[in-house]
Amino acid sequence: MLHIENLHAQVGGKDIIKGLTLDVPAGEVHAIMGPNGAGKSTLSYVLTGRSGYEVTEGSATLDGEDLLALAPNERAAKGLFLSFQYPLEIPGVPALTFLRTALNAQRKARGEAEVSAPEFLKLVRIKAGELKIDFEMLKRPLNVGFSGGEKKRMEILQMAILSPRFLILDETDSGLDIDALKIVSEGVNAVRSPDRAMLVITHYQRLLDYIKPDRVHVLAAGRIVASGGPELALQLEAEGYDKYARAA
Amino acid sequence: MTLAAALKTRDVTQLPGKRDEDWRWTDLRGLVRALPEPSEPFAGEPPRGPFADLAGLPIHVVNASDPVVIRAKSAEPYVVALHFAALGGGSHAATARIEVAENARLILLESYEGDAEAYVADHALSITLAPGASLERVVLAADGELGINVSTAQVTLSAGARYAQTVLTDGGRRQRIETRVTHPGAGADLRLDGAYLLADKRHADQTTEVLHQGVGGTTAQLTKGVVRDQSRGVFQGRIVVEEGADQTDARMRHQALILSDQAEVDARPELLIFADDVSCAHGNTIGALDDEALFYMRQRGIPEPQARALLMAAFVGEVIERIEHAPAREIARAWVAQRLEV
Q1: For chain A, which residues make up each domain, given as ranges?
Q2: Contact B296 A90 (CB under 8 A)
Q3: Is the pLDDT of residue A248 over 70?
Q4: Best mutation site among A82, A90, A155 for testing chain B: the one with the most B CBs within 10 Å?
Q5: Over pLDDT 90: what percentage of chain B?
Q6: Which residue of A has its CA nearest to B292?
Q7: What is the mean pLDDT of residues B194-211?
Q8: How far is B257 from chain A (nearest CA, A)?
Q9: Among B199, B196, B212, B221, which residue's Cα sits nearest to residue B273?
Q10: Which chain A residues are within 8 Å of B295, Cβ to Cβ?
Q11: Residue B251, CB half-sphere, CA atoms under 13 Å: how many?
Q12: How many angstroms separate the CA atoms of B100 and A216, rounded?
């Protein structure tokens, strides 16, 4: 599925990712944990193609296809989805319009037919209901005036509608109370499947109680410095990142 | 110094230009070295314009004609489509008088078009609202690339009248849509909105002046602009609250997006207040499209040109939503979307 090999990336001329290698096979959930400034968010932006994040060496492929050669929207159409740490407000564009535009743009890029309005609304009603999102809220401009928790739920709704193959969750637990965290985690777990995979970026172990990872990696100073099973997350929670920060 | 006077006397020194304070950003004197010959009378089938199908009474004026007179007398809304076309080049001056009787209602759907020839056109509208009258004016101005068009409306409101205006333009070689309103206060209500959507080397000027002359009047103004390539947008909004015009409530907002290094917006919002007890505010912001929002949209699979168009349409949408006449609003929305396509 996702294969990253010796990736180096700069932001503003400064090296942030320094030789990162990672494999996430289909069907698995991998967590990336690490101290602030380790390069966790940078990794998510490099993979999704944000401008200003320059890859200087190495490769990243999704099912063998070179991600780095594609525009951000082309990567999305290939099934790459990033749940943003800070979802953007899109003034004047109703959430429904945004979602339908995105879905149809992806389908068009894949050579699939557009989804009709009734089909789309039916799908949204079901998914919004599961995430306890008031349908009326979807008529409002996307994320404008939404609370932190509502924005995160909107990310998961978009994920459910767009049905990506590879998900990156960037600090999805930040800003969520325990009830919202449960709803969001259920939404994420609902899309787990043998042909999908995900990378869960988090600072705290808490989220991993709800979204159980197959593997846990520690990212420090731009590289993976330790990998292990779910028990590694518990160990980090107990011991902190200090020894990895020093090792890096 | 007016274009109308210059056309009448055929004297270019009568043209307004840089030295006239209100025309410094729309310099006609420096641009027009010689006035073109008067336009030929037009023989064929006149163009219908964007609003013809909505109107009980479509009026077409090609290269000026006899003065147009529109009188609305009924409390049932009367819909008039007034289309001005400049075809085959030359110069001409058109006039129109619009009167809305006491408690009568008029929807005036006004439009401009020009062909690819160079032309100089002046339009002078005199609009009068009797007490309690109501007029919604929607203007779509689509001039030719080589067209010079000045349209000036002198609006006089009476007590309890309501005037709402939305001017949408995509510019011309030089284009100015000017609105001057005499506002008596006395419960009269004014909305003055506009949007300019410019590309290439086009120029659009939206100039307004409101004179609040009596107690208790309201004015709400919202103008938005999107400029690309080497285009230039001008917004001049002046609200004067004269001595004694207490309890005036006047709000003006102008927002523009500059989408190219070579595009330009010149804005001059002015509030001149000579009364004590008033509530007035103005705001003016100029910026670019939000790069983070664009990336977010692209991450969801929306190609960049489509993402930009969606953000621009949403930005201008606030002006469109304020159009009250629903069929005209939909035509305006489509007109805007067409001009924001990439």
Answers
A1: 2-247
A2: yes
A3: no
A4: A90
A5: 94
A6: A88
A7: 98
A8: 14
A9: B212
A10: 50-51, 72
A11: 4
A12: 75
Contact B132, B160 (CB under 8 A): yes
CA distances from A180 to A29, A151, A173, A235, B41 (A): 21, 11, 9, 26, 71
Query: What pTM does this model have?
Result: 0.85
Name the band, by pLDDT with cuts 50, 70 and 90, for residue B342. low
CA atoms in the 13 A half-sphere facing the CB of A229: 1
> Which residue of chain A comes nearest to B305, CA vs CA?
A73
Between helix A148-162 and helix A178-190 the angle, nearest 10°, is 10
Q: Does A77 touch chain B (CB under 8 A)?
A: yes
Cα B192 to Cα B165: distance, rounded to the nearest angstrom: 5
Q: Which of B72, B230, B43 is nearest to B137 (CA)?
A: B72
User: Are A30 and A232 within 8 A, CB to CB?
Assistant: no
Residue B244: both structure tokens together: 């004694």
pLDDT of res. B228: 95
Amino acid of residue B92: H
Q: Which residues pair with B150 in a beta bridge?
A: B122, B176
**DSSP secondary structure, A12-56, as one string:** TTEEEEEEEEEEE-TT-EEEEE--TTSSHHHHHHHHHT-TTEEEE
User: Which position has the higher pLDDT, A133 or B299?
Assistant: B299
Please give the torsion angle defined by the CA atoms of residues B240, B243, B244 and B250, in that order, rounded to the nearest 10 degrees: 20
Fold of A2-247: Rossmann fold (3.40.50)
Buried b (16+ CB within 10 A) or exposed e, A38-74: bbbbbbbbbbbbbeebebeebebebeeeebeebebbb
- Residue A226 amino acid letter: A
3-state DSSP assignment of residue B162: strand
Residue B86: what are its φ and ψ, rounded to 5°? -115, 110
Q: Do A105 and B301 touch (CB under 8 A)?
A: yes
Residue of B nearest to A98 (CA): B297
User: Do the chains contact at B311 and A92, CB–CB below 8 Å?
Assistant: yes
Handedness of CA A37, A41, A47, A52 (dihedral sign): negative
Q: For the segment A102-117, what is each residue's pLDDT rounded down to a tens digit?
A: 999 999 999 999 999 9
* B285-319: pLDDT as tens digits: 999 999 999 999 999 999 999 999 999 999 999 99
ipTM of the complex: 0.94
Q: Report the candidate in B139, B193, B208, B201 with the shortest Cα–Cα distance to residue B171.
A: B201
Whether A96 and A35 have beta carbons less than 8 Å apart is answered as: no
